[in-house]
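Review form for a predicted model. The reviewer records the input and the model, then writes brief findings.
Reviewer: anonymous (R2)
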Amino acid sequence: MTKYCAIRFFHERYLPCLERKLRRSFPDETSVQFHSLLSLWIASKLHETPPLSIRKLQNIAKKLIPDHYYTKKDFIDAVSSHIPIQNQKQEIKFLEAIDFDLKTGPLLSTYIEELLSEIRGKSKEIAKLVSLELCLAILDLLYVCEDEILLATPVELTGASILVAAYLLVVPITKSNFPILTWLHLSSNTSTGSLKECTRRILKCVLAGINSTETADSVLEHIF
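Model under review:
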């Protein structure tokens, strides 16, 4: 939950605010990268007890941002008031950029988990083959692809479509007799047409680089 909460703060609120609210040139890359770490730190304060330690944040930064080393002092200064005013409270600056809005609303990851829990009670094949880890891996790929589905599509439709995509990727054709579209249409209150189109786009992202359009369409054929 912490990771997806941080992504919502940074990807969906902070980045769009930069040009709209600051009304000046885009901040330097190092500053933006540090704010991405702050979004993770803030999210951990909301959802973890205890929150992420500075050492853990340093380790994450070392793996994800290898071209810059963040010291313990960098993180302490980000929330400290005992430093020069021009460097003060990067955490506060980040919160100001997102209007201090720490509400997350329905997280896509949580919705997927709830749907999967329900559907596993309806189908033994899905319970055995479709894992939450696979669904979240697909969600992560959509963030990597920066697909507009994540910003422009309702949580219910995106979550249900990710579940359909996971089903198509791992359930053998010989066992694909569960009416997944009908079930998700009723459970998520989304149309089957929208589910088909959203799933097709998700599969194209997942299968990118291997003739994705044709592969996605062929994978979809046996249930659509």
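Findings: Confidence is low (pLDDT under 50) at residues 81-88.
Further findings: The chain has 13 helices and no strands.
Recommendation: see findings above.
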